[in-house]
From TrEMBL:
The gene is guaD. It comes from Mycoplana rhizolycopersici. Binds 1 zinc ion per subunit. This is Guanine deaminase. It catalyses: guanine + H2O + H(+) = xanthine + NH4(+). Its cofactor is Zn(2+). InterPro entries: Amidohydro-rel, Guanine_deaminase, Metal-dep_hydrolase_composite, Metal_Hydrolase, Metallo-dep_hydrolases, MQNX/HUTI_composite_N.
């Protein structure tokens, strides 16, 4: 058995912080030790205690003075959109039709899908992201490429072949039967293989006919434990068009509810403009609203009411995500920065502990995987990130006057990016140095 002992400053959350002074919501060790055995966390705590209990031949890696945290989790990202990040468009539908749909057509070529998948995982690891929930393209080959690469790297990844059968170029359309058959094939080949999780992935109501939504409903009934991911209430014109396409639904959320797609493993990208009725429906179903701040600002979609949704009498579960390529950064640190600024514009405060909770344990809870990832609890997978809040000259200068952990975290989210990520561990293996 191989054992590795990491030494550094340990920070892991045990629940959502209620305020800045909620010291019980996280565990912090100034001189911490984290013992890894067989890809899992065997112990975490004061360095001296963990060392005393470690095997005599343990390999030790000294990460002082850096912070060791659970790896970041990105709960909504599009891997076939790496080459359309930052494409100039007025709004969501123009961006999809002008750049994104044509780009995704290229994934009919397995070699292209395999190449972009390699780049995608490189970027995830460079930015400290150890788990993501991704949309592949409509082509089964894109899902094969995505999960092949996850398996190679030993990463815990969620993903799905997108289903879409209208309102897009011919090269990007399946049919209700094809979407069903290929999703079943992806599940059979990939779900549970390594650390892979397949998600049922109808792109959004606009690109699925009612017949395809019926097939999606069948899949959801046949595979009740799988994640479901789609888009909801992102843009005014999208909402209007959806109402036109599904006149029988009382609102956008109801379109998905009618097909049995609202449940605790349902991840709804955006959810910016939900009515009170829709938020109630999401809450009652325990469904998750995924906030994608850099995308929402870039496409001018709107300001997601994160704090307001979280403190409702019927709270809505929330996850944070990059939404690359509508999103403009792979960095979850940058994503926190923009999350913070959007709450500022809404007159709300998001403290740094809450932010870092969201990116780790909070997102693990959002994707129902907190028994495995997002924490430093013994027994969970050793997916970790090592962070340096003085990674650039500007950060180092600012750090000279930082006196508290809260201020250090806030600096990391405000000025940090991939340069602040010194190392990324996947199941106990250092991955960033090897890139
Ligand atoms: N709605 C449907 N597809 C997409 C997509 O690829 N990106 C975003 N941001 N919204 C969508
Ligand atoms: Zn998206």
């Amino acid at each position: 058995m191989t054992a590795t002992l990491l030494r550094g400053r340990l920070l892991g959350f045990v629940r959502r912080p209620e305020n800045m002074d909620d010291r019980d919501s996280y565990a912090y060790e100034d001189d911490g030790g984290l013992l890894i055995e067989d890809g899992r966390i065997a112990a975490a705590g004061p360095y001296a205690d963990v060392l005393a209990a470690a095997p005599a031949d343990v390999d030790e890696i000294d990460h002082r003075p850096f912070l060791i945290m659970p790896g970041f989790i990105d709960t909504h990202v599009h891997f076939p959109q790496m080459q359309v990040i930052g494409a100039y468009a007025a709004n969501l539908l123009e961006w999809l039709n002008t750049y994104t749909f044509p780009e995704e057509c290229r994934f009919v070529e397995p070699e292209h899908a395999a190449r972009i998948a390699r780049h995608f995982y490189d970027e995830m690891l460079r930015h400290g992201t150890t788990t993501a929930a991704a949309y592949c393209s409509v082509h089964k080959a894109s899902a094969d490429a995505y999960f092949t690469e996850a398996l190679k790297r030993g990463m815990c990844m969620i993903g799905g072949k997108v289903m879409m059968d209208r309102n897009a170029p011919q090269g990007l359309l399946d049919t209700p039967q094809m979407g069903y058959d290929e999703t079943r094939a992806v599940i059979a080949e990939w779900h549970g293989k390594g650390r892979n999780h397949v998600a049922i992935t109808p792109r959004f109501a606009i690109t699925s006919t009612p017949a395809q939504m019926e097939m999606t409903a069948t899949l959801a009934r046949e595979f009740p434990d799988l994640h479901i991911q789609t888009h909801l209430s992102e843009n005014d014109e999208e909402i209007r068009f959806t109402a036109e396409l599904y006149p029988e639904a009382v609102d956008y959320t109801d379109v998905y509810a009618r097909y049995g797609l609202l449940g605790p493993k349902s991840l709804f990208g955006h959810c910016i403009h939900l009515s009170e009725r829709e938020a109630d429906a999401m809450s009652e179903a325990d469904a998750v609203a995924i906030h994608c701040p850099t995308s929402n600002l870039f496409l001018g979609s709107g300001l997601f009411p994160l704090k307001a949704l979280s403190r409702r009498e019927k709270p809505v579960r929330v996850g944070l995500a990059t939404d690359v390529g509508g999103g403009t950064s792979y960095s979850m640190l940058k994503t926190l920065d923009e999350t913070y600024k959007i709450q500022q514009l809404l007159g709300e405060r998001l403290n740094p502990f809450e932010s870092f909770y969201h990116m780790t344990l909070g997102n693990a809870e959002a994707v129902s995987l907190s028994d495995r990832i997002g924490t430093l609890e013994p027994g969970t997978d050793a997916d970790l990130v090592v962070l340096d809040a003085a990674a650039t000259p500007a950060m180092a200068l600012r750090m000279e006057v930082v006196r508290s952990l809260a201020d250090e975290l806030f600096l990391l989210q405000t000025l940090g990016d991939d340069r602040a990520v010194r190392e990324t561990y996947v199941a106990g293996k250092a991955m960033k140095a090897a890139l």
